[in-house]
Amino acid sequence: MSVTERRPVGALLLLASLSLVWGLNWPVMKVALGEMPVLPFRALCLLVSGPVLLGFAALRGGIALRPQEIPPLLLAAFFNVTLWHVLTGLGVSLMPAGRASIIAYSMPAWATLLGALLLRERVTMARLAGLVLGMGAVAVLILPDFWSMVAAPGGALAMVLAALSWAAGSIVMKRRRWSCSMLAVTGWQICLGGSPIVLGAVVLGPFPGFERVDAEGLAALAFVIVFGMLIGQWIWFVVLDRLPVAVASIGTLAIPIIGLLSSALFLGEPVGPSEVAALGLVVSALLLVTLPRGRSMERRVAPAVAMRQPPQR
Fold this sequence. Notes:
By secondary structure, the chain is mainly α. It has one domain (3-307). The chain is 78% helix and 0% strand. It is built from 14 helices and no strands. Helix 2 (38-59) packs antiparallel against helix 9. Residues 1-7 and 294-313 have low confidence and may be disordered.
């Protein structure tokens, strides 16, 4: 098997790992947020993870950027980090965290639309069908709380805007070939996009917000920083670098399902027929967009691989 044939498989394995990491991250984050305010929690995650990622990147090959890369990096950081963390924090504070995560992963709909309009990515029948199935899963999970969301739409609106922001940031990232590794780009984004959040947490207080945090809360915070931020963010941008936006984003539809199932396992949250139906729809969507279909996927991914060496491991 050639190198270009192996790399899409590796990207799909990374996407599966990301789904597991970010899926588990939601119930763990709920534990942490039960013991500390949202703004200090977000600030601590960003304050630690950004410099650590940049430090690793510096050790593995450098973090220098070209001057022309700074404006798009700032824009990507604004969408992927600043807006995402502020809006999701607001959304989780206004509605149940599990339902908030489901709305957040309407992102594939926005990413597929923006990818077709701005990147001219081909919307194949398989991707379109996968998107419809995935959005159907989101709808199945939202419907039981539909009227409560209509009555108090602030949280749902914040999460929709967060999903749109994440999709826009993914498009900004995809439009450019960066001169440094994805590890360095991720670190720069977290540092730049997280600076306003850290500043807000320090000014508004309380910071660091450990007044009521016990050992379980500290462990949850550490998990979110190490797995949700350091590992998860890096995996996402590596996957985005290797796969079309539509495929990468539809692959994230497994995350809210894992989040719901892990919440049921660790937090005792209920799992009913709607969750089972959504799981079936998501599995179908993932199979449609990730299973090989002749050489079409190889042809679409190979040019990106040829233009850029993979991030250092």
